[in-house]
């Protein structure tokens, strides 16, 4: 039990202990990289994500505010921190002038549980979801969250000190369970010395401390009601004893943090929870004589978006405003759709999902008719999810699910893909390349095992799925399940639009070809290019003839693959190097290759008359032993165009194809 005698709050940084690894904090690097769009986006993602995970009832409320205070109001909270800030290099923090006014960023959530758990725990070996207080304040890279929750890396909270130019924040929690209000502060600096020869660790805490030597460096939260009430009044918090949740106060926020940008990022990152009524966002900017305020919910989302100009959307989001509004209209349609209008796709009797084994023909026939009439269609896809069995245990597969929504939008200049896992937009996952088609994949449900599997594959920023994630290895066929979900838009969208596809030999020249050696490219340009053969029903789109008198190989499509054959020009001893990639509309397909598309190491390859020399994820090298050799590669997606580049060299030549370019 904590002492009933109030102790004076203070800042303390533990000293470095001999034998402990000295490691500088680098977590803020996760939130300044391009894929997070900077601190503003990271702040919004983490604040809302934590609040939605701690939801007690609907809707969760999030408040962002920027206020300015005079020095007399805030000095008592920073005075003890100042000596530490002054010895840290200015490349890491900007020591404040505590005699001048200072801005503070306020982030509060409501209808949430607050930080539950025992505040006196000094170490927790095994994850416990109920110990949120401990994991929030005393851990980096460790979390009590399960994979089904929105964030489970334990790194996201480090964005809060990263937002502050003095790398500091305060947190006040009010808990649902016991109504306790607890206040602490944290500063994340560098190793430093105030006294020569006495190194100090980077993590400092504002709190109360027990006098005994064992816990003299372990901060306990402030629970003195007088101190907490003064803190709430000083920083104009809305947190009352009867309003559980978490309030954060971030001093001297980075100048890039602006209220209008926070709101735009909330639109971009969490449009889905707002649309379904799970989230309400309130933003405020306080002026000496007035307060600007916007409260955004499912009823006024569109009206609030329309207050922003096209230019603001272009500058501060990844969206074109008009296209974003059409996306929201499509999302609203999907939410209002009755279950009877959603076509269900059920799995075969297998533990790892594979599109080639799903029987979807009858479903697609109906879906094509709806798509032609309504330009929109919806699917629910059931997926087997199986944990890898431990020794001596048997694990049966559970059935997970996800929803796929597809829309034709003639105004789209390219393809659009959205994958939302528990409300988080996993934005770096691209699903298809069908121009004019918008696709949305939604994976949610507290009891959905697929949610947990996909969460285990996410990177710390929750922007992509990583097939090599260690946590994904806990599932039988986890990588295959990940690939199955990722391919859903391309597979279903490709089958829906098959009727639109006609043979266009000039079009296929741009998206499916075999690269010619450099000496032949000029001749091709003068003659108008190679002839494209029709593939019929064999799956791949076709292969052009290769110019040249000593053509080393010929290709022909086979069902879900390609056959490479030798010719009279295939001298024994020659090395043939082949690289594969799915075609894309823009850019170099080979540079954009993703192992989730296909992996030659996992695909069946039949080889006669050659010796396989190299087999990587998308490259195949072999040595010719007989001129009439044959190599068959199967397992490509029959609904996607494949680009290939081929190089044949003498067996004693080194070098590769690093300098090759895709032939136009």
Molecular structure report:
The protein is an alpha+beta fold and 664 residues long. The protein is globular, with a radius of gyration of 29 Å. It has a nine-stranded mixed β-sheet with strand order 1-8-5-4-9-3-2-10-11, sandwiched between helices. A hairpin with a 2-residue loop joins strand 15 and strand 16. Helix 1 packs parallel to helix 7.
Topology of this structure?
Elements: E1 10-12, H1 39-53, E2 60-69, H2 71-78, H3 82-87, E3 102-110, H4 132-138, H5 159-163, E4 168-174, E5 181-188, E6 192-193, E7 199-200, E8 203-207, H6 225-234, E9 245-251, H7 259-275, E10 279-286, E11 291-296, H8 301-305, H9 310-316, H10 321-336, E12 343-345, H11 361-374, E13 376-385, E14 398-408, E15 416-421, E16 424-425, E17 437-443, H12 449-456, H13 478-486, H14 488-496, H15 505-511, E18 514-515, H16 518-527, E19 553-558, E20 561-566, E21 575-582, E22 605-608, E23 610-615, E24 619-624, E25 630-634, E26 642-649
Parallel strand pairs: 2-10, 12-13, 15-17, 18-26
Antiparallel strand pairs: 1-8, 2-3, 3-9, 4-5, 4-9, 5-8, 6-7, 10-11, 13-14, 14-17, 15-16, 19-20, 20-25, 21-24, 21-26, 22-25, 23-24
Helix pairs in contact: 1-7
